[in-house]
Design brief:
Number of helices: 3
Largest sheet: 4 strands, mixed
Radius of gyration: 14 Å
Length: 135
C-alpha cells in the first residue's frame, strides 16, 4: 500500500472512531496493532468494524468491502459493520438487515443489508437492545 493511501486509511479510521464515539458514547478507538483479519476499530462490543476511506464508493467496491467485513466478523463471532466515506461525502454504515427482524441469517452479499448514517445505525441498534424494533 502506498504511503499516502496508508495515511488516508489511518486518518479515516481515526475520524470514524471519533464519529462512533460521539454517537455511541463509548470509547471507540483505532486498533493500532492490526493483524490480517482484524477489525479496524474496537470499543463497540459485539461488532466487528471495518472502515474504508476512498475517493469514491461504487457498488463493486462496496460489495468487496462488505465481504471483508463479514469475513472478519465471522472470525470473532461478532456482527459486521462496514463504515465508509467517499471524498466530499459523509460517513455511512452498512450492517445486516436481518438484525431487525425475527430471524437472523448469514449475510448473503449486500442484498440483506441496511445503509444509513452512523447516528441512524446506532439509534436502530439501541431500539433493538430495548426490544422495540422487531418487525
Amino acid at each position: 500500500m502506498a504511503g499516502a493511501s496508508r495515511n488516508k486509511g489511518k486518518t479515516g479510521e481515526r475520524e470514524a472512531a471519533a464519529v462512533l464515539a460521539q454517537v455511541t458514547g463509548y470509547d471507540v478507538r483505532r486498533r493500532v496493532r492490526q493483524h490480517e483479519g482484524d477489525s479496524d476499530l474496537e470499543g463497540v462490543t459485539g461488532w466487528s468494524i471495518e472502515v474504508k476511506r476512498h475517493a469514491c464508493a461504487p457498488a463493486a467496491k462496496l460489495a468487496d468491502w462488505w465481504a471483508q467485513a463479514v469475513t472478519q466478523a465471522e472470525r470473532t463471532d461478532c456482527l459486521p459493520l462496514l463504515m465508509y466515506r467517499a471524498d466530499r461525502g459523509g460517513w455511512r454504515c452498512v450492517w445486516p438487515a436481518d438484525l431487525h427482524t425475527d430471524r437472523l441469517s448469514a449475510p448473503d452479499g449486500m442484498a440483506h443489508t441496511l445503509s444509513a448514517t452512523p447516528a441512524t445505525w446506532w439509534a436502530m441498534c439501541e431500539r433493538i437492545s430495548k426490544g422495540t424494533s422487531k418487525a
